Amino acid sequence: MISRKPIDIPCTLQERKVLEQIALAAHELGVPCYLIGGFVRDKLLNRRTKDMDIVCVGDGIALAHKVATYFENSKVSFFKTYGTAQVKWNEFEIEFVGARKESYRQESRNPDVEPGTLQDDQLRRDFTINALAISLNEEDYGSLVDPFNGLADMDAKIIRTPLAPARTFSDDPLRMMRAIRFASQLQFTIADDTFQAIREQADRIKIISQERITDELNKIMLSTTPSVGLNLLYKSGILKIIFPQLVDLAGVQTVDGKRHKENFSHTLQVVDNISRNTKDLWLRWAALLHDIGKPATKRYEQGHGWTFHGHEMVGAKMVPRIFSRLKLPTHEPMRFVKKLVELHQRPISLTKENITDSAIRRLLFEAGEDVEALMMLCEADITSKNVSKVRRYLDDYEMVRQRMKEIEENDRLRNWQPPVTGEMIMETFNLTPCRTVGDLKNAIREAILDGVIPNTYDAAYAFLLEKAKEMDLTPVK
């Protein structure tokens, strides 16, 4: 067995075992080998990580196959065209590639590749903090290879590129969004010259596929403080290209000395607020889009001021188009976001005096199982700096929660199913599917929501017979 010095990053015993086996395989093949990239970065930052990237000065696919022989039930996938391979074993996903250097054509982000040295491979990396390498070679096992001062940048919390930033981003424009995503995830600052290059080349993002753009956008949305990344996208000019409807929220108009709320910064604060309480991506998207209909509904009314009447309905109608354009899932996640955007004004209207139980029932019925998510969104929507006003809003929402709880316990309206179904109506009156069946179903539903009858089969069936009599319908004997 080859003797090894400890790797000076906080690895688990299992990770150390895996790295030792990779080192042994590389030694037997006679190829220099290094652990590189995100695994090294995240371990040094004490962030959780499981994926390893291995670069060797030689055949990465051959090394992957050799490593797999050491791990029972491991699986190798390889891509000969790109010279890359992946080994999956237990919870580990290990990527292998031969060291290479790359050159790019202006119209494409697909590089021309040829074999290279370790430094060539580090030079092609996007940022200095992602170019850190740990040697797995016998002569200097565990030593850090850091030709671009990535460790110093990590200590200073700086994002910068190994090459001139203009070249880095021209070669692969997706790196502009990656820089912003890392700044958002790690709470780092993008170096001035690096960010200036992003601003100058923002338009090049257009050659990137929508799927890759949206993947980076979702990672920003899942960061601890998404506003960091969203604000950088806005300042760089990229957001205007990839998500113009969000940029339309920015800016303030003044008429007769009256200004409206700056809706872009308000939206970012709402996203941050809700992100403190949930990691649910789609609830965060609902926060991002909750006011998306305001630019289309903004009006100035003499003697009253600025209004955004119906912005929740307009915004809800925009959600499917936005999801389709961004290639986000257009099934259940989209319906969830659309529902919350449409309903987000409703709970505040229920804080007024003399609100009937019927209004509470209707919100429970329409929100269904998503009522708690809706209330989280409403509470996140409180962005006032007036502490007493915030407390008053929160108290009002707590009152709404209590009333909903009481009515839910009595009426069981969440995930409501009609106690008398359309099939029962057709069988009772010997009807085929028609408008009359729908009218009777709606009448039962409205009677339950208005509190005219309880949410029970007996009450609903009795009401059905009474309503049918008014329509000259006779039950079949």
TrEMBL record:
Required co-factors: Mg(2+)
UniProt GO molecular function: ATP binding; metal ion binding; nucleotidyltransferase activity; RNA binding
InterPro entries xref list: HD/PDEase_dom, HD_domain, HDIG_dom, NT_sf, PolA_pol_head_dom, PolyA_RNA-bd, tRNA_CCA-adding_enzyme
Domain named HD/PDEase: residues: 259-395
Keywords assigned by UniProt, alphabetized: ATP-binding, Magnesium, Metal-binding, Nucleotide-binding, Nucleotidyltransferase, RNA repair, RNA-binding, Transferase, tRNA processing
Domain of life: Bacteria
Any single GO BP term: RNA repair
Keyword Membrane: no
NCBIfam families: HDIG
Similarity-based family: Belongs to the tRNA nucleotidyltransferase/poly(A) polymerase family.
The protein's name: HD domain-containing protein
Organism field: Chitinophaga silvisoli
